[in-house]
Fold:
Amino acid sequence: MLKSDKLIDAIGMIDESMVRNAREFEGGGSAAVKKVLAFAAVFALCIVVSVPVLAAAEVEPAQELLYALSPSIAQRLKPVKKSCVDNGMQMEVISADISGNTAEIYISIKDLEGERIDGTADLSDSYDIRPFGEKTSACRLVGYDEEMKEATFLLEVRQTEGMQFDGQKVTFSVSKILSHKETFEGALLDQTLSFVSDTPKGKENVSIGSGSMDGAEKIIFLKPEKEPLAVPINGAEVSAIGHADGKLYVQMYYKDLSNADNQGSLWLEDQDKTKVECEKNLTFGDGDESGRYEEYVFDIPYEELGNYKLCGELICGGTLTEGDWQVTFPVGGAD
Structure:
């Protein structure tokens, strides 16, 4: 567990612009699309720390953490202090700010009965705020108190198409809490990429984008192999690799998404540990919506593939707790 001075040092470099610019846009689309958009921001922003009981007796540790993370956000959010309990878990809306088309909500999740919460906890895309309509949203874990078995989250929900919030009260709800996820980081294959074909099997060109077909971007989706090339961690498989049109395409298959928030980040790495980052990633479903395929695209010449290994960080599995947590509160904060 970090000491309070080390905690402040660890998060003191983060300002509000970093918090507000790293968006995990979820909601308003299919589960697969939501994951692609969400994952681009998660490593840029999310810091997970063990939160000690801080010294100021008049200010709760969760509020101290938010002030350390961003004083301006902490000052803008108004106290709510409303909670509910279901399935042995307590959800508390600590503070919130609702203005125009945007709601910022700071919450905590606490396990009252067991060990179901840890530093990998997330809300598994199960949160909502009513009566908001079509929306985009961001959720990030900002703290975990091991002693209290409590995780804190900062959320932003934004109505789309210029809609403004109109009402006296809102209801914030959560139905799933996922924790105890497993992480794999390292080489996904034992060998370099010298084996990759420059004429991959079953590749399909798909046009995406608006406007005429001539102006649309051409995307290649590979045909998954009958057997995965590698299974680095339960829940994630390397399903196909190919090189075409000057790009390397790596296809991953993430399984059992109804029970887990399986996702990953890939890069290439040579023997000197020099990295080539993924320039974009694309998603498509598996037909029955139990999993998704995700292709990672790298701008690298075919002749250089033998110099690199495929590496990544994969987050899979976990313990899923379901319930019905709802809190209704006035737009202006506490009653």
Summary: The first strand starts at residue 78 and ends at 86. The helical segments are 4-11, 16-21, 31-45, 61-69, 71-76. The first helix runs from residue 4 to 11.
